[in-house]
Amino acid sequence: MADGNIVTSRRFFLFASAAGGGLMLAGCMTPSDTTDGAPTIAAEPPPPPAPPVDMNVFVAVSTDGTVRIMAKNPEVGQGIKTMLPMLIAEELDADWSKVAIEQANADAKYTGPTLGGGQIAGGSFATPQHWNPMRQVGAATRLMLIQAAAARLGKPVEEFTTEPSIVVHAASNTKIPYGDLVVDAAKLPAPDLATVKLKDAKGYRLIGKSMRNWDSPKIVRGEPIFGIDVKVDGMKYAYYEKAPVFGGTVVSANTAEIKALPGIVDCFVVKQVGNLPTKMGLLDGVAIVADDWWTAKNAASKLKITWDEGVSKDDSTAGFDAKAAELAKGAPGSNLSKVGDAAAALKTAAKTIEGSYVYPFLVHAPLEPMNCTAHAKADGTVEVWAPTQRPDMGANGAFGLIQTALGVEKDKITIHMIRAGGGFGRRLDNDYAVEAAAISKQAGNIPIKLIWTREQDMGHDPYRPGGYHNFKAGLDKNNNLVAFTNHFVTFGRPNASGVLAPLASANSPPQEFPANYVPNHSYDQSIMTGGMPTGPLRAPTSNAVCFAHQSFIDEVAHAAGKDPLAFRLELLNLPVPTGANRTGMNAARMADVVRVVGERSGWANRASLPKGAGMGVAFYFSHQGYFAQVAKVKVEQNGQWRVLKVWCVGDVGSTIINPTNAHNQVQGSIVDGISEMHQKITFDKGRTVQQNFYDMPLLRMDYAPQIDSHFHISANSPTGLGEPALPPVLPAVANAMFAATGKRIRVLPVAQSELRWS
Amino acid sequence: MASYTINVNGKTQTVEADPAMPLLWVLRDKLGLVGTKFGCGVAACGACTVHLDGKVTRACVTQISTVGAQRVMTIEAIGETKTGQAVQKAWLDVDVMQCGYCQAGQVMAATALINANPAPTDKDIDTAMQGNACRCGTYVRIREAIKTAAGVDTKDKREV
Q1: What is the pLDDT of residue A45?
Q2: A223 contacts on B by Cβ (under 8 Å)
Q3: Nearest chain A Cα to B106, which residue?
Q4: Cα separation of A752 and A509, whole Å?
């Protein structure tokens, strides 16, 4: 399990003497991040704070008892800024009403194997990776406070306990607040994180209790906390126009003409630096700098740019669809996995079923458009205020891209991680950050805030790749599934060795269920070249592949004349076939959530639903989470459809750390998944066709279903919730539409299918 | 460029701006009121929702030259009204927020709804809030928070 990955060592975290201050957040953002958390709404001037004393890089305690805890990971709406400090505060036994959470900068001092790894919002990794380390940090800090009290009273450490933010020596009836001990405690050597004792779960005061999203009071007051709100002295605003075709370059532009317009500070061509096979970095473009952003954007309507559109200018969705159909008919490019002899089993099967599934490219479209504030200073340092999910991740992180594009060393770059208005994987890429830094430098080392338009966001995304699955299944005379094959057609480009390899997130896992459950399976793949940038969208790969596999399994269940939920349990219960190697999903845990969702949804009573209403089921294992969902939909005779309710049961281990946020993530994942069933991104002449939310719709209030979210507690270490609740909702809804109408949704978006009935 | 005198959150403000400049960017870049958010620029998402004389208005498509004497109310001051304060409190009590970027607009739309209709039904909420997208999908909680703020039964009574 996850705990096995966490390496602990005696090298703990840096200490007060070495850690420096670190208290100030981005100097631009006032009021201080450390003053709220109380439920009052009216903004009152806080009393002058007592100076904090750093106990380590994460915890500082003030003599007035305030406990400042650094939130190390980027916050994009997943609730991590509240949750990681909860873990520290629990073991520190801090009084939550005296806790002040502060967002950490991107800094290696918060990272490393003993501290839960890097600073990233991705992969739902934060919970499993930090569950032990953050609690250990809290426990070690608490031990230091106890040691200071023990030394002061001349009593053995073992005689001390704590109440929230107070060290207690019961025998002498002595209570010492943390604030009175911190100066002494901070001088003590660091306890060993590996051996520090953690609480028994029965003693939790914070973990398992709902703690409100830390920044919410500021959000409802409209305070400046998002990346787009950052203001730096002397700052100008920037607009950046890139080629409409991915990877196109600037031949010429009327920059002098634009620069002469009223309110325009500067206009210049920016050139790509280095090789960018992913097309997600500093690409060629024209920058317009002005005193306000709208003036810069408005001037862009007068831009005349000649582009070299490059090699992707003929890409089109129609062309891709035709090529995919051709590839599906031919011999596959490669085999991904096989057990037994699926071809032979299909030949001798009593019944065979075929189904081809297609899903489109998707855009992330977080509601806060891409933006970044940067100051490439004349002294060669660079300061960046970035709403990013991944500041430091090799060449594609903000550090790496800025190092390459500006030719500066990493230690000259400061990155403030600013709350982002949604991520969904979009901000794992840092193209906007390197653009802002490059424009700041080229504009004469002035601080600039770059903001993209929504149209630019739709046109320059690392898209979720579309895909084509061509399934066959075979049933024996007793309607047992004996063969399952897939010829997956996807997008790729030649890798370093010249071999055509799938684009980012354009793969279909070789172990995808029911591989290694059915006695004979074969998964094959063919690849066509695509020039667009791609990347992970929330629950990457899973959000696509789950729809195809869990829908086709439903088709097989119906062909076998079996209850789709019972059929899934039957498959999960199959013995491991000869030659199969099951990794990842634990079948028993999955069967549990499938059973429970059946009970909670009243699945057994679904036959009483009127025509036009139906229930569907699906399950999925991703990001270490086990999720089963039942959706109930209503399809009107005119084809209009709505999801009425979704029942969701998830197993993410022994502990739901912050229940209010956990359920919020599940609710959001379900709405997000249904939203994806309405969406598509298509390409024509190498360009993205969709422009804005009028042709790339987001689900609205009236189409959001009722949701029953339930966690099935199991004896496993806790895992993350940003992603795994999303994938099963798409097939659960599609399967429900089949139950309602007899029409199978094999193509997304749903609007491409005829749903009228009489 | 022209000079415009507008009433924002009860204060008279004079700005120099192009007549076509949207109120959103006047608020954000000229008056420093950044609580009103940019999401789409075409009145398709609701992140920029403000009140003009109490009515829900998308600031991203409202040119400064058309504001005139209408009173502009933004998220920064909505808590000074009784309904606005109740809505803000309900948003916190229900713990609506994920990323929070749309929520200023949601709070403004919800406040206008309750001001016009003190006991909104699910259908009223569907209609009034349809223009405000939440990319994180917090609709279940927005619905509950609106009812909490209005002091009506919070149960979702739509067809199941």
Answers
A1: 62
A2: 35
A3: A220
A4: 27
Neighbours of A8 (CB within 10 A): 17
The pLDDT, as a whole number, for residue A275 is: 83
What is the Cα–Cα distance from A209 to A229, expressed in whole angstroms? Answer: 32
- The predicted pLDDT at position A394 comes to 86
Chain B residue with minimum CA distance to A645 = B160
* For residue A55, pLDDT beyond 50: yes
Residue range A442-450: average pLDDT? 98
Q: Could you give the C-alpha distances from A68 to A7, A49, A75, A178, A465, in angstroms and in order? A: 26, 11, 17, 12, 42
pLDDT per residue as tens digits for the range A407-424: 999 999 999 999 999 999
Question: What phi-psi label fits residue A550: left (phi over 0), alpha (psi between -120 and 50 degrees) or beta?
Answer: alpha
User: Which of A444, A507, A514, A446 has the alpha carbon at shortest distance from A475?
Assistant: A514
Is the CB of B98 less than 8 angstroms away from the CB of A693?
A: no
State the CATH class of domain A317-362+463-752. Answer: alpha beta
Q: What is the pLDDT of residues A698-717, one digit of tens each?
A: 999 999 999 999 999 999 99
Which residue shows structure tokens 């924002």? B8
- The CA distance from A633 to A631, in Å, is 6
Closest Cα in chain A, distance from residue B9 (Å): 13
Q: Which residue of B has its CA nearest to A692?
A: B40
Q: Which among A223, A424, A667 is the nearest to B35, CB-wise? A: A223
B160 Cβ contact list (under 8 Å, min separation 6): A632, A644, A645, A706
Cα separation, A481 vs A342, whole angstroms = 11
Q: Which residue has the higher pLDDT, A25 or B88?
A: B88
Chain mean pLDDT for chain A: 93
How confident is the model over A190-243, as pLDDT tens digits? 999 999 999 999 999 999 999 999 999 999 999 999 999 999 999 999 999 999
Domain covering A51-217 in this structure, CATH number: 3.30.365.10
A311 part of contact set with chain B, CB < 8 Å:
no
- Cβ separation A369–B39 shorter than 8 A: yes
- From chain A, the residues in CB contact with B160 under 8 A are 632, 644-645, 706
A44 touches B: beta carbon within 8 Å: no
Q: A46 falls in which pLDDT band (50, 70, 90)?
A: low
Per-residue pLDDT tens for A275-309? Answer: 888 899 999 999 999 999 999 999 999 999 999 99
User: A62 in contact with B at a CB cutoff of 8 Å?
Assistant: no
Task: Identify all chain A residues contacting B142, using CB atoms and an 8 Å cutoff.
Answer: 701
B44 contact residues in A (CB cutoff 8 A)? 692-694
pLDDT at residue A43 in the model: 53
**What is the band of A396 on the pLDDT scale with cuts at 50, 70, 90?**
confident
A678 Cβ under 8 Å from any chain B Cβ: no
Separation of alpha carbons A584 and A511, rounded Å: 9
- On whether the CB atoms of residues A422 and A416 are closer than 8 A, the answer is no
Instruction: For residue A44, name the pLDDT band (cuts at 50, 70, 90).
Output: low
DSSP states along A542-566: HHHHHHHHHHHHHHHHHHTT--HHH
Question: CB-based contacts of A417: which residues, under 8 Å, 6+ apart?
Answer: A74, A75, A103, A104, A105, A106, A119, A386, A387, A388, A391
CATH number of the A227-311+370-451 domain: 3.30.365.10
Among A142, A137, A185, smallest CA distance to A166 is for A142
CB half-sphere exposure, A373, CA atoms < 13 A: 25
> Where do the structural domains in chain A lie, given as residue ranges?
51-217, 227-311+370-451, 317-362+463-752
Neighbours of A183 (CB within 10 A): 13
Q: In terms of pLDDT, which residue wins out, A713 or A17?
A: A713
| Average pLDDT of the residues in A114-136 | 96
Q: Is the CB of residue A39 less than 8 Å away from at least one CB of chain B? A: yes
Check for a shared fold between A51-217 and A317-362+463-752: yes
